[in-house]
């Protein structure tokens, strides 16, 4: 008997559970296509949790004449902000003018274009700052006299991925984590895909009309070794590393600092008590899942920030580092910084059947547009698919207006008075309206079950296991939340023991 059952042919098999894979799965499922997504690890385990955590147009890309990319990203920025007010919110960026670098007039021109290229409607416009009169000047060196303030947005990147996966599943997609695609071959106009569950070691077989390769840093490996498509298209792996340090200043704005090597870095308020500094741009060699912030990269970021802050940022200030490997399309740029951030989609088909779509590059800001473009590339193979629908449609927990955030926070604290303001705010900015589904009828802290440190309790852990594919301590403390920054080793061990026994 054929192991590949012809009566269960999926429209799409998607390889990769990062933002592109989950975004495409959501869009496709909402158009009525049958979808199975396979991720070899946890959702957002690689590049998609290693970003600078911004929805932004990419101000510096204007210098490389990437106007289409910047315009698309700027338009998306506000669309996404409305669809996920719990995990994304407006952020003002301060750009100091540094003598000897880009002249003031050039910064003004660039910011004028940035303000107007994408039809900005919600976010406030750029303004000029006098650091002697504005509080953003307090932590900066006194030699910095003036600057500009403009708008972009913050986003919780890993939660963005998980929420897309949840919405995809609610619309009929099958999401398989910790399941590796071992091989795929074309037989009789269909893809026969063999996968293996890493927990049970069970091998499974799926048939599909189309395979979409969203393997991120592994896109070329999947292309050549799993799909066996010998392609001339290459990927350039570029590592972006970040450091998280003790809180450097008291206000709520972020900084963007120019560097003499023509790069920029950000310094961003992070998780209430910290400042996030990044990113680097270094060609990466070796396994993408072994990427880490090297001592040289950490030193670069410390020096880059200290060039601007009055109080130098030192190695002992660093509390955490992380790295993401960007799978950029190899356009033969002379440096990692100049390599295109635009996405590139390549289709391979035989006689109009068994299509393979390979996804290179992309920015987290344009993931929704990438998904639309990907489905447009394969619509001739799936003429039954519905129309594009995702623009402005809320993700799970985001079914409220950004302007109602304070009202929703008050509702959470009224229903659950045992939450202090910090705890309630964390729940809102992690789960939005799902907070009520997680806490349910809890009347006091005792109703939340075991305590795992900080504001993490059994009830929340169980919900993450049951609804968001969380399996390990790292899944929960670094991707579903960022509580790893505030939970000690003893409590991490307690959580690990709980999960080892099956948890909830």
Q: What attributes characterize this protein structure?
A:
disordered N terminus, alpha+beta, 29% helix, eight-stranded mixed sheet, 504 residues
Write the layout of secondary structure elements.
Layout: E1 9-15, H1 19-30, E2 35-38, E3 54-55, H2 67-83, E4 88-96, H3 104-117, E5 127-130, E6 146-155, H4 157-170, E7 174-176, E8 179-187, E9 190-197, E10 203-213, H5 219-226, E11 235-246, E12 254-258, E13 264-270, E14 274-278, E15 282-283, H6 295-306, E16 318-329, E17 344-350, E18 353-360, H7 367-378, H8 405-415, H9 421-431, H10 435-439, H11 458-467, H12 473-480, H13 489-500
Parallel strand pairs: 1-2, 1-10, 2-7, 4-12, 10-18
Antiparallel strand pairs: 3-6, 4-6, 5-6, 8-9, 9-10, 11-14, 11-15, 11-16, 12-13, 13-14, 17-18
Helix pairs in contact: 1-4, 1-7, 8-9
How much is the radius of gyration in Å? 23 Å
Note the overall shape.
globular
Q: Helix share of residues? A: 25-40%
What is the strand tally? 18
Describe the structure.
With 504 residues, the protein is an alpha+beta fold. Helix content is 29%, strand content 25%. The chain is built from 13 helices and 18 strands. Helix 8 crosses helix 9 (421-431).
């Amino acid at each position: 008997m054929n192991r590949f059952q012809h009566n269960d042919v999926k429209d799409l098999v998607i390889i990769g559970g990062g933002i592109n894979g989950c975004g495409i799965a959501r869009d496709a499922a909402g158009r009525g296509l049958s979808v199975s997504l396979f991720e070899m690890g946890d959702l957002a385990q690689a590049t998609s949790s290693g970003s600078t955590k911004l929805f932004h147009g990419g101000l510096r890309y204007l210098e490389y004449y990437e106007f289409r990319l910047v315009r698309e990203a700027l338009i998306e920025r506000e669309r996404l902000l409305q669809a996920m007010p719990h995990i994304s919110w407006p952020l003002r960026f301060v750009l100091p003018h540094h003598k000897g670098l880009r002249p003031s007039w050039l910064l003004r021109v660039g910011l004028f274009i940035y303000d107007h290229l994408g039809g900005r409607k919600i976010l406030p416009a750029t303004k000029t700052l006098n650091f002697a009169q504005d509080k953003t000047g307090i932590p900066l060196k006194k030699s910095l006299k003036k600057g500009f303030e403009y708008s972009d947005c913050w986003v919780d990147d890993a939660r963005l991925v998980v929420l897309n996966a949840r919405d995809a599943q609610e619309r009929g997609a099958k999401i398989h984590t910790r399941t590796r695609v071992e091989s795929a071959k074309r037989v009789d106009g269909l893809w026969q895909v063999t996968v293996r569950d890493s927990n049970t070691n069970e091998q499974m077989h799926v048939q599909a009309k189309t395979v979409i390769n969203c393997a991120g840093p592994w896109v070329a490996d999947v292309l050549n070794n799993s799909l066996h498509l010998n392609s001339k298209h290459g990927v350039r792996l570029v590592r972006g590393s970040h450091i998280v340090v003790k809180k450097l200043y008291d206000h709520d704005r972020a900084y963007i600092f120019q560097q003499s090597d023509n790069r920029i870095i950000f310094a961003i308020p992070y998780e209430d008590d910290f400042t996030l500094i990044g990113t680097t741009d270094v060609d990466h060699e070796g396994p993408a899942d072994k990427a880490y912030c090297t001592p040289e990269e950490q030193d670069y970021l410390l020096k880059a920030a200290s060039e601007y802050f009055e109080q130098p940022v030192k190695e002992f200030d660093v509390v955490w580092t992380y790295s993401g490997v960007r799978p950029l399309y190899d356009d033969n740029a002379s440096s990692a910084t100049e390599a295109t951030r635009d996405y590139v989609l390549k289709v391979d088909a035989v006689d109009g059947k068994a299509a393979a779509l390979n996804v290179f590059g992309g920015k987290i800001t344009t993931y929704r547009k990438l998904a639309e473009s990907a489905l447009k590339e394969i619509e001739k193979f799936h003429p039954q698919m519905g129309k594009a629908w995702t623009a402005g449609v809320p993700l799970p927990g985001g079914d409220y207006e950004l302007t109602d955030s304070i009202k929703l926070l008050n509702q959470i604290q009224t229903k659950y008075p045992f939450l202090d303001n910090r705890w309630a705010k964390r729940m809102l900015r992690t789960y939005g309206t799902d907070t009520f589904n997680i806490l349910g009828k809890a009347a006091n802290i005792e109703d939340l079950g075991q305590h795992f440190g900080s504001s993490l309790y059994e009830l929340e852990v169980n919900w993450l296991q049951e609804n968001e594919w969380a399996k390990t301590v790292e899944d929960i403390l670094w991707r579903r939340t960022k509580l790893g920054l505030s939970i000690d080793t003893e409590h991490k061990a307690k959580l690990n023991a709980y999960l080892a026994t099956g948890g909830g």
